What we know:
By secondary structure, this protein is an all-alpha fold. Helices cover 80% and strands 0% of the residues. The chain has three helices and no strands. It has helices at residues 2-14, 19-41, 50-70. Helix 1 runs antiparallel to helix 2 and helix 1 (2-14) runs parallel beside helix 3.
Amino acid sequence: EEVIDEHYKSQLDSTVLDEELAEAIELFREEENEHRSTAIANGSENAILHPLLTAAIRTITRTAIAVAKKI
Protein backbone atom coordinates (compact mmCIF):
# COMPACT_ATOMS: atom_id res chain seq x y z
CA GLU A 1 0.00 0.00 0.00
CA GLU A 2 2.86 2.39 0.72
CA VAL A 3 4.27 2.17 -2.81
CA ILE A 4 0.84 2.63 -4.37
CA ASP A 5 0.12 5.57 -2.05
CA GLU A 6 3.40 7.21 -3.10
CA HIS A 7 2.55 6.61 -6.75
CA TYR A 8 -0.91 8.16 -6.42
CA LYS A 9 0.56 11.12 -4.54
CA SER A 10 3.15 11.72 -7.24
CA GLN A 11 0.42 11.60 -9.89
CA LEU A 12 -1.61 14.18 -8.00
CA ASP A 13 1.45 16.38 -7.41
CA SER A 14 3.01 16.26 -10.86
CA THR A 15 0.21 15.88 -13.35
CA VAL A 16 -2.36 18.33 -14.58
CA LEU A 17 -5.56 16.37 -14.13
CA ASP A 18 -9.14 17.16 -14.72
CA GLU A 19 -11.14 17.39 -11.52
CA GLU A 20 -12.93 14.06 -11.94
CA LEU A 21 -9.69 12.11 -12.48
CA ALA A 22 -8.00 13.86 -9.54
CA GLU A 23 -10.94 12.97 -7.29
CA ALA A 24 -10.79 9.32 -8.42
CA ILE A 25 -7.06 9.10 -7.72
CA GLU A 26 -7.53 10.67 -4.29
CA LEU A 27 -10.30 8.17 -3.52
CA PHE A 28 -8.07 5.26 -4.57
CA ARG A 29 -5.28 6.67 -2.40
CA GLU A 30 -7.60 6.93 0.61
CA GLU A 31 -8.73 3.33 0.06
CA GLU A 32 -5.11 2.11 -0.02
CA ASN A 33 -4.38 3.95 3.23
CA GLU A 34 -7.49 2.48 4.83
CA HIS A 35 -6.47 -0.99 3.68
CA ARG A 36 -3.00 -0.53 5.20
CA SER A 37 -4.49 0.73 8.49
CA THR A 38 -6.89 -2.20 8.66
CA ALA A 39 -4.09 -4.69 8.05
CA ILE A 40 -1.90 -3.14 10.75
CA ALA A 41 -4.83 -3.05 13.19
CA ASN A 42 -5.29 -6.77 12.58
CA GLY A 43 -1.67 -7.61 13.33
CA SER A 44 -0.22 -7.92 9.85
CA GLU A 45 3.15 -6.62 11.02
CA ASN A 46 3.39 -9.54 13.47
CA ALA A 47 3.11 -12.21 10.79
CA ILE A 48 6.16 -14.44 10.58
CA LEU A 49 6.89 -13.72 6.91
CA HIS A 50 5.80 -10.08 6.98
CA PRO A 51 9.21 -8.57 6.15
CA LEU A 52 9.78 -10.99 3.27
CA LEU A 53 6.29 -10.57 1.85
CA THR A 54 6.46 -6.79 2.22
CA ALA A 55 9.76 -6.62 0.32
CA ALA A 56 8.44 -8.88 -2.44
CA ILE A 57 5.19 -6.94 -2.81
CA ARG A 58 7.03 -3.61 -2.91
CA THR A 59 9.35 -4.87 -5.63
CA ILE A 60 6.52 -6.30 -7.70
CA THR A 61 4.45 -3.13 -7.30
CA ARG A 62 7.34 -0.84 -8.25
CA THR A 63 8.02 -3.01 -11.30
CA ALA A 64 4.37 -2.93 -12.34
CA ILE A 65 4.26 0.86 -12.01
CA ALA A 66 7.47 1.24 -14.04
CA VAL A 67 6.10 -1.02 -16.79
CA ALA A 68 2.78 0.85 -16.82
CA LYS A 69 4.61 4.15 -17.25
CA LYS A 70 6.31 2.76 -20.37
CA ILE A 71 3.10 1.77 -22.10
